[in-house]
Specification:
heterodimer, A: 562 residues, mainly alpha, Cytochrome C Oxidase, Chain A, two-stranded antiparallel ribbon, 17 helices, 2 strands, 65% helix, B: alpha+beta, Helix Hairpins, five-stranded mixed β-sheet, 4 helices, 18 strands, elongated
Chain lengths: 562, 347
């Protein structure tokens, strides 16, 4: 396809670039703001992780006191989840989803800007506890009654609640925007079952956010009332119920896990086919599996509470184990995509392969945790810490980096340097496994999570040291990444419209795309319109049923989009 | 460069990597501790089954990924598209069935083990109340013995071997969790308020010995200090142990552990009645603190973590101060930092 070069619409008054970025309602710029903001919080929370790992490298309190340590892991968890992984994937969603749908922008551009700007505000409020006598220190799960004003009198916890409520509100606004965009803004021919898998995962994620996050917001407000206005939702001393908090938190918190992982699965499902030069194996099965995971995610929350003695174990154990089925289907579909492909091991492909091989480990340990007797042993130990990092870091963060390397050329018109990218990947991959694999064994041998110190005779010293070395390797791996980004801006290889021979519509416009996204759209007959454009109807591969849906095709032939 | 045929490389990987992995697993990696209770043995056996299933899935999937990366790697000059395979319903059904079967095996065996772990005896050999507080434990025995630990001296939980032991788990403040790794079990200590009775945990220790345990539910500042030891002993020793404590320490109550007790009072307005006290080095000692002032006071030691609880006006309280090294220290009221006195430990 010919390269499209177009001048931006004339007649618009020129503004300084600062004002431009501060006031933008362009989904692409907002997407970039999301991503940059997320990476800044990633670095901050990563420094906290290094503090935690340094303190734990050897027994004895080294340089943090207990309260500082507790603040560090609380902030680390909160910031990584709520201000790095979720917004980073939302950022890619913001940038890519309208392009993938052939839409000119999100449905509500101004709400889009609002939901971004609430994030840095909320994040800074959460962090600002450090300025007022100490940040929140009750863990990112904030279990009651530890968070009551009796046991956590500091204002840091209140700032954490307010900040998180703002971040949650931003999420809810974003979810409404995504759902509306995906249902109402698709280009002619882009039926639901032709949407790229990434869009499907963003859609299911948005529905989960819309149903789950208001529950968290309600819980946070109740907690705030408890702490400041004499409420008694969660305080047993005055008739409240501390387990209620756990129910509310995990009713949000488990769908949250899928909010974090599903878009990353979507990224991987875009990257693997492109670099295997094959379609995704079992597109429909993948869509149904995504929906099934979304539905099941609301029936499993109490598997975080097996040791409370307050939940019906068989039900939650069974529902949790059931999630392994759609997840297994996805895993097999990814393997089927690789099978007999022609694999190009570019950096995004390496991170995608890293995702499936590491997420597998997190998935396996997750199924182990679904068994109540095993959970009785490893609940609240480092085994759980290993599990959640294999899901969130081995899964989602590898997905974030796959997305970064994959879509960077589209966003900035230049390709990130491949050798530097591969150096980044390998240090990252090895460091990740050094940091988190030993934690399985630490947990099995009984090391509880969230302890600032441990007995030198417990036999945990060597593995903790290995883990700390791994954590620093991860930090080191970020250096080639940052050099790569800077060097690419200065002197990167021009990417052209479609550097990867992509399948989806974002590659049908310029890199970066014009403000209005598309001059014209290629016909859309399948979930791979660009492949279709390059290789044509004649290719035996395109599914015949796509050509039968003539009604949409007619609409599409008539429709001169944009 | 000589390109090795993919098949050869694969066989090499098969010959080297898989036995290495299996040996690693057999060598004791990824295993919980040797169980010391009958319920722990059930969990251990279940874990082995689950680990075997996990190992099969792990080796199968990771093996395939490595195989695919080697076997299907695109050659630089290869511009021919591979076959555009969109899917296959038969294999979709097969690989929906595989995890389904695994899930049902796991669930069935989990429920069988759960039944054994949760089994309750009609007449436990001992019923002990375990009370968690920030940041230590109190153990109360039916015989009237009560033991409370401190960070410097974690408490011992004595249990008889070979008999079911029932723990009644309650908390006076935040959530805690009773966890002994070698028992392969934990249970939370939650103040359910009006929501229900406290949790219970029951196990039969199979081997006499000392087992370390600690709080597993994050409970605030000194969560990491909330350790304890379980000493499992034959019935006769257990009875003797409790009898010894009853004989030796009644009715000392709180001050039973104190070698030396120092009297300190707060007097109007906002000062101590003494500006210098002395205590022995290397052993716990007590300060019997009487608040004769009109506002609350407490005692902390600036150089250590010790920070006693507040004592309202007109009341008194005995603090147990953990053993300190010889030296000069300063005690003070943490509510009124100007209210200080010197503490000389040792000669």
């Amino acid at each position: 396809m010919a390269t499209t070069t177009l001048e931006p619409t004339t007649g618009v008054q020129r503004r300084s670039w600062v004002i431009d970025w501060l006031t933008t309602v362009d989904h692409k710029k907002i997407g970039i703001l999301y991503i940059v903001n997320s990476f800044l919080f990633f670095f901050a929370a990563g420094i906290l992780a290094l503090l935690i790992r340094t303190e734990l490298a050897v027994p004895g309190m080294q340089f943090l006191d207990q309260d500082t340590f507790n603040q560090a892991f609380t902030m680390h968890g909160t910031i990584m989840l709520f201000l790095f992984i979720i917004p980073a994937l939302s950022g890619f969603g913001n940038y890519i989803v309208p392009l993938m749908l052939g839409a000119p922008d999100m449905a509500f551009p101004r709400i889009n800007a609002l939901s971004f700007w609430l994030l840095p505000l909320g994040g800074l409020l959460i962090f600002s506890g450090y300025l007022f006598g100490g940040a929140a220190a009750e863990g990112w799960t904030a279990y009651s009654p530890l968070t009551s004003d009796r046991f956590a009198p500091g204002v840091g916890t209140d700032l954490w609640i307010i900040g998180l409520t703002l971040v949650g509100t931003a999420s809810i606004l974003g979810a409404v925007n995504f759902i509306t965009t995906i249902f109402k803004m698709r280009a002619p021919g882009m039926t639901l079952m032709r949407m790229p898998i990434f869009v499907w995962t963003v859609l299911v994620t948005a529905v989960l956010i819309l149903l789950a996050t208001p529950v968290l917001a309600a819980g946070l407000i109740a907690l705030f009332i408890d702490r400041n206005y004499g409420g008694s939702f969660f305080d047993p001393a005055v008739g409240g119920n501390p387990v209620l908090w756990q129910h509310i938190f995990w009713f949000f918190g488990h769908p949250e896990v899928y909010i974090v992982i599903l878009p990353a699965m979507g990224v991987v499902s875009e990257v693997l086919p492109v670099f295997s030069r094959k379609p995704l194996f079992g597109y429909k099965a993948f869509v149904y599996a995504t929906i099934a995971i979304g539905l099941l995610s609301f029936s499993v929350w109490a598997h975080h509470m097996f040791t409370t003695g307050a939940v019906f174990l068989p039900f939650f154990s069974f529902m949790t184990a059931l999630i392994a089925i759609p997840t297994g289907i996805k895993m097999f579909n990814w393997l089927g995509t690789l099978w007999r492909g022609k694999l190009m091991l570019t950096t995004p492909m390496l991170f995608a392969l890293g995702f499936i091989s590491m997420f597998l480990i997190g998935g396996i340990s997750g199924v182990m945790l679904a068994s109540p007797p095993i959970d009785f042993h490893v609940q609240d130990t480092y085994f759980v810490v290993a599990h959640l990092h294999y899901v969130f870091f081995g899964g989602s963060v590898f997905g974030v980096f796959a997305a970064t390397y994959y879509w960077f050329p589209k966003m900035f018109g230049r390709k990130l340097n491949e050798p530097l990218g591969k150096i980044h990947f390998w240090i990252h991959f090895i460091g990740f496994n050094l940091a988190f694999f030993p934690m399985h064994q630490l947990g099995l041998s009984g090391m509880p999570r969230r302890i600032s110190d441990y007995d030198p005779n417990a036999g945990w010293t060597i593995l903790n040291m290995v883990s700390t070395v791994g954590a620093f390797m991860i930090a080191v791996s970020i250096i080639p990444f940052l050099i790569n980004v800077v060097a690419t801006f200065i002197n990167g290889e021009p990417a052209g419209d479609d550097p990867w021979e992509g399948n989806t519509l974002e590659w049908a416009t310029t890199s970066p795309p014009p403000a209005y996204n598309f001059d014209r759209l290629p016909p859309i007959h399948s979930e791979r319109p660009l492949f279709f454009l390059t290789h044509g109807h004649g290719h035996a591969a395109e599914r015949p049923d796509d050509l039968e849906e003539s009604e949409e095709d007619d609409v599409e032939r008539r429709g001169g989009m944009v | 460069m000589q390109v090795t045929a993919p098949g050869t490389r694969l066989r090499l990987i098969g010959r080297v990597a898989i036995p290495l992995l299996v040996t690693g697993l057999l060598a004791g990696c990824m295993l919980p501790p040797e169980p010391a209770t009958d319920a722990g043995q059930e969990v251990f056996n279940l874990y082995l089954l689950v680990l075997a299933l996990a190992a099969i899935v792990f080796i199968g999937v990771e093996g395939f990924i490595i195989y695919a990366v080697i076997r299907y790697r695109r050659q630089p000059d290869d511009d021919v598209l591979p076959e555009q395979l969109h899917g296959n319903n038969t294999v979709e059904i097969i690989w929906t069935a595989i995890p389904t079967v695994i899930v049902f095996i796991l669930f069935t065996f989990s429920m069988i083990a759960l039944g054994a772990v949760e089994a309750r005896s009609d007449e436990p050999g001992a019923t002990i109340e375990v009370e968690g507080f920030q940041w230590q434990w109190t153990f109360r025995y039916e015989e009237g013995v009560e033991r409370t630990g401190s960070a410097a001296e974690p408490p011992v939980l004595a249990v008889p071997v070979g008999e079911p032991v029932r723990l009644v788990l309650s908390s006076v403040d935040v959530n805690h969790s009773f966890y002994v790794p070698q028992f392969l079990i934990k249970r939370d200590l939650i103040d359910f308020g009006e929501g229900g009775p406290p949790n219970e945990l029951e196990f039969t220790v199979t081997e006499a010995g000392t087992y370390s345990g600690q709080c597993a539910e994050f409970c605030g500042t000194s969560h990491a200090d909330m350790t304890f030891t379980v000493e499992a002993m034959p019935r006769a020793d257990y009875d003797q142990y409790l009898a010894d404590i009853l004989a030796g320490e009644e009715p000392g109550g709180d001050t039973g552990d104190c070698g030396t007790t120092i009297q300190v009072a707060a007097v109007p307005s906002i000062q101590f009645d003494t500006d210098a006290i002395e205590a022995p080095a290397g052993e716990d000692f007590c300060i019997e603190f009487t608040n004769n002032d009109s506002v609350p006071h407490d005692i902390g030691v600036i150089e250590t973590d010790f920070n006693g609880e507040d004592v309202p006006a007109g009341e008194s309280f005995t603090y147990v101060i953990p053993a300190m090294e010889a030296g000069d220290y300063t005690f003070y009221c943490t509510l009124h930092p100007t209210m200080t006195g010197s503490l000389t430990v040792g000669s």
